[in-house]
Amino acid sequence: xxxxxxxxxxxxxxxxxxxxxxxxxxxxxxxxxxxxxxxxxxxxxxxxxxxxxxxxxxxxxxxxxxxxxxxxxxxxxxxxxxxxxxxxxxxxxxxxxxxxxxxxxxxxxxxxxxxxxxxxxxxxxxxxxxxxx
Length: 133
Hints:
By secondary structure, the protein is α+β, with helices and mostly antiparallel strands. It has helices spanning about 5-10, 15-30, 35-40, 45-60, 130; strands at about 30-35, 60-65, 70-75, 85-90, 100-105, 125. It contains 5 helices and 6 strands. The longest helix is centred in the N-terminal third of the chain and has 13 residues, at about 15-30.
């Protein structure tokens, strides 16, 4: 699916900078940190990259993976109000890259009564096949 169409489905206004950032996330094929993303889109200053990512987050166009550093991944959900493509991620402790394990959905977890879940994520840590070999 074209990134422009995905942005429209999420109610994100398409601008040249936002399009460049969304395409960089799409082409990466894995979650990127702010620093990695800035290296991909050198023509856009840091503050514009950050503002675009926050707009994407608010519209559920990116998944935000907590960690040090935080990483961003383009969401392929077709809804602007919730994510229907949540999957498990793997962080390699050697190369420090995060990989999508799209074939493994985030397992359902029932929160205790009174708790309101706002985000879900599942992160495995270890050594990736490239570093293990």
